[in-house]
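sorry for the late reply, my laptop died twice this morning and i had to redo everyting from scratch. anyway the thing you sent over, i finally got around to it. pasting the sequence first so we're on the same page, its 182 residues, then the predicted structure underneath. double check i copied it right bc i was rushing
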Amino acid sequence: MEIEERIGKRIKDLRNKNGLTQEELAARTELTKGFISQLERGQTAPSVSTLQDIVECLGTNLSEFFSEDEEPEIVYRKEDYFENEDSNGNIVSWLVASAQSRSLEPILMRLRPGTSTNFDKPHDGEEFGYVLQGTVRLEYGDKTYTVHKGDSFIYPANKPHSVASASRGDAVLLWVSTPPSF
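ok and here's the structure:
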């Protein structure tokens, strides 16, 4: 599709979205209905200043008009996860590859018996965890909590915090941080 056709289609879509006829858009932009029709069919190209007037009348700006919003990825497959194993055999799986561009970051954490995460320094945001297997010990500020399989926790991340396995076997938890910090 040629650039003129893409511009014309975008103008027509925005005009329809705003419930305007070609004649109404022409009147608001001091153009002719025939010119608007030619634009929408990709038969002519407007000047930059004319295009700016049109898109402003349609409730947007040139930057938004030309942005090509890609549909965000919705489903992430196991083969897309990024995994890291530390020296203790703990495994952290980042479940969403593009989480840094999102407002939250989900990870799956497998802690070996007797091991823990490093203490995380206070930072903005919140953290949530759900224990899928075993038992964990949550250190938050100067308090310690025991969290069993099926239990969850949530806290503002404004105090030092860490999680340790309190199980004879592996402890597995779903961890969600907002904003992403891992």
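The domain at 78-178 is CATH 2.60.120.10 (Jelly Rolls).
thats about all i looked at so far, will dig more tmrw
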